[in-house]
Amino acid sequence: MSGKLIAHCGATLMDREGLKTLETPPATESWTPILHYDLVQALDGQLKARGISIVKEAFAVQKAKLFGVIDTDWQVTEEGGAAIGLRTSNDKSLALQIAIGYRTFVCDNMAFSGDLIALRRKHTGNLDIHKELAEAITRYVRDYRRLQDDIVVWKETPVTPERAKTLIYDIFLQKIVPIRLFHPVVSTYQATMHQGQHLWTLQNAFTRHIQKLNPAPAFAATVKLGKFFERVG
Prior knowledge:
Blueprint lengths: L2 E4 L5 E3 L1 H4 L16 H13 L5 E9 L2 E8 L10 E7 L6 E6 L2 E4 L4 E2 L2 E6 L7 H28 L4 H13 L8 H11 L6 H12 L4 H18 L1
Parallel strand pairs: 1-7
Antiparallel strand pairs: 2-3, 3-4, 4-5, 5-6, 6-9, 7-8
């Protein structure tokens, strides 16, 4: 999956049908809980309204908290597809949040990452879940296209050996990736330079070794790396 869900801090993995069995506390004037199953169904409906289908999904529940990742068939490329990460709760401990990207990471230890945050909304009394999700999916479609455009730019932006050295130095100086990856990254970049000396080639040299880290630090490094290349591209 492009979305990665980890449940190792007490959450229980559950499919969508299992979410139907969970109880939801009653609403108040200032707070609107949402049945987890209804939330996923509404999100699925908003995607379908735009011609987007869910191809894989995974959910985990920890008491009143819901964690989930969803892969769709939207804009799938060799780099990955458009993924959605979500988390929420019905005990006022978490706002409803949706992250998007070609990689999303959700963990019950509260790690939550994506290339962009499409929605962050408290369960206030006037919460209209369908309106909020409609706006979030609009941002999902719009901003994921922008991410894909960034990848095209990275593939078309040449990098001289001198600039590559500077960028590598800056990435490690800013502690975006662990310093122990310095030699593996440099070796990989030098070995793949024949494929084209571009920002994308350099980024892939980092990504190849970041993927060998544990899931949480790997995803954090991937997100930071993407933001770094957005700035320098």
